[in-house]
Structures are given as C-alpha cells and as structure tokens.
Write a structure and sequence with these properties.
The chain has 246 residues and is of the alpha/beta class. Helices cover 36% and strands 17% of the residues. The chain contains 10 helices and 9 strands. A 6-stranded parallel β-sheet has the order 3-2-1-7-8-9, with helices on both faces. A 3-stranded antiparallel β-sheet has the order 5-4-6, with helices on one face. Bound molecules: 2'-O-acetyl adenosine-5-diphosphoribose. The site of 2'-O-acetyl adenosine-5-diphosphoribose has 26 residues, from helix 2 and helix 10.
Length: 246
C-alpha cells in the first residue's frame, strides 16, 4: 500500500538511534476521537462561550455552578469518546524505543485508555476534583450543583490547570528533565501557543535533540523544528510506527 504521508528517512534513523524519545501532545491528538480542540469553536449550548473565558479561577469564583456545568458536559463528552489510532501508536512506540516519556496537555485520559503508562499530565485531569481553598485532591457529592470539600466544606473545583495557574511542580520538573535529556522530541497536535508546555520543544532542541512537529496545520513555530509533518496524528503516527518496522 502507498504511504499516506511522507516520513523523512532522517527522522526514521534518528528514532531508530534514540535512547530517549519525548512526546508532547495537545488537543489535536484527541480531535479524531471526536473531542473538540481548545481553539475550535464550541458547539451547542456552549457555543456562546470561549474556553479561555471559562478555564480560569476568576470565572470559577464568579459563577462556580456555570463552570461545573461546563466541566460535567466535557466529562460526558470525553467519557463517550474512544482513543484513536494516534493514541494507540504512541502506546505502541513506547514498546519499540528504549525509553519514552509522554507529556500531555490533554486532560481527557485517552492516552492512558490507549495503554500509555507513566503519562505526565501537564494540565491535570478532567476527572479529578480538587478543593479550591486547600488544593487537595478529593471528591464530593457530584449531585450538587457545586460539590463541596469533605474536609473544609469549601467549594470543590475540577482538578485541571487553569489559565494563570502554575503547572504542578512534579509534572514540570519531570517534563523539563525529559525534554533536556531526550534524543528525539515529537510535538503532536498542539498549537504551541500556551507556555510553559510550548517551551519544552525549545529546551529539547537547545540540548541537541531532533525536534519534530506533527500537525495538519503547521504552527507559527514550524520553522524552529527539524521536521514538520503536515497531517493528522491518527494517520502520521501509525505511519511512523510502520516505517520503523521496515
Ligand atoms: P489547541 O486547540 O490550541 O490546538 C490544537 C492543535 O491541534 C491545532 O494546532 C490544530 O491544528 C491541531 N490539530 C487539529 N486536528 C488534529 C489532528 N487530527 N492531528 C494532529 N493535530 C491536529 O490545543 P492545545 O495546543 O492542546 O490549557 O492547547 C494548549 C492548551 O491551551 C490546553 O491544554 C489548554 C488550552 O487552553 C489549559 O487549559 C491550561
């Protein structure tokens, strides 16, 4: 069968020689599972809102019930989605290369459901609840408009990282360590607009890694990558695995 996209030979060689491969994924990886990306227009009831206006601590303080309705809608959407060929290919690649670190900005658990282990969740997890005041991971009565903390009685919030908030220290440290140490860095399905995640590719390149972008619409950072592969991750990543096996 003819290849569906062009994987450069030099990239295949770099992957075959790699000791540590680091992958950063963004919302585009879940697009083929039917999960809208962050910068896609929202649909239905939520079309009038920008995700950037809802995913903030200020929005939660102003109207916690609204934010919970949005996150419950997103939980439902994601719970009904299945991992796609891109998620599965990343789990497969981890079995082929000596070491692979997967960092995701996604909060949907689809990588884990595809079989990836040790996933670094840079922006938290959609299905976690966290006490707004204390920051602790806990769970409350999900039938309430706004669930409350069993310890302090304050409001619970979804356990994701919002705009203006710090990345969990362990996730940031492990990600920077992997990006600095890797031989090949793949940036997949991310607009590379949100820092510090977008800076990981720079860290990898500055430390000598081969850096690669996989995205159907190459980003404004495309020129900074050694290779830019224009295509959907659900097509390009399985093709990459096939090319490695040849
Ligand atoms: P974005 O929505 O900004 O970007 C998604 C990217 O995926 C775009 O560059 C698309 O071109 C690309 N894309 C679309 N379909 C694709 C496909 N099938 N295969 C591969 N790529 C595809 O999402 P992120 O970059 O993940 O943060 O956004 C980063 C962060 O900004 C999110 O984690 C979230 C958001 O606001 C927080 O909530 C803190």
């Amino acid at each position: 069968m003819a290849p569906k996209c062009d994987i450069p030979d030099a990239l295949i060689t770099a992957l075959r020689d790699a000791r540590l491969v680091c992958i950063l994924t963004g919302a585009g990886v879940s697009a083929e599972s039917g999960v809208p990306t962050f910068r896609d227009a929202q649909e239905g009831l939520w079309a009038q809102y920008e995700p950037q206006d809802l995913a903030t601590p200020e929005a939660f303080l102003a109207d916690p019930a609204l934010i919970w309705r949005w996150y419950r809608w997103r939980r439902q959407l994601v719970a009904g989605a299945e991992p796609n060929a891109g998620h599965l290919a990343i789990a497969e690649l981890a079995k082929i290369v000596p070491q692979l670190t997967l960092i995701t900005q996604n909060v949907d658990s689809l990588h884990q459901r595809a079989g990836s282990t040790g996933v670094i969740e840079f922006h938290g997890n959609l299905f976690d609840d966290r006490c707004f005041a204390e920051g602790t991971l806990t769970s409350g009565d999900d039938s309430l408009d706004v669930p409350t903390c069993p310890d302090c009685g304050g409001n619970l919030r979804p356990g994701v990282v919002w705009f203006g908030e710090a990345i969990p220290a362990a996730a940031l440290d492990e990600s920077c360590a992997a990006a600095s140490d890797c031989d090949v860095f793949l940036s997949v399905g991310t607009s590379s607009l949100v820092y510090p995640a977008a800076g990981l590719a720079d860290l990898a390149r500055d430390n000598g890694a081969t850096v690669v972008e996989i995205n159907p619409l190459p980003t404004t950072h495309a020129a900074d990558f050694d290779f830019t592969i224009a295509g959907n991750s659900g097509v390009v990543l399985p093709e990459l695995i096939d090319s490695l096996a040849l």
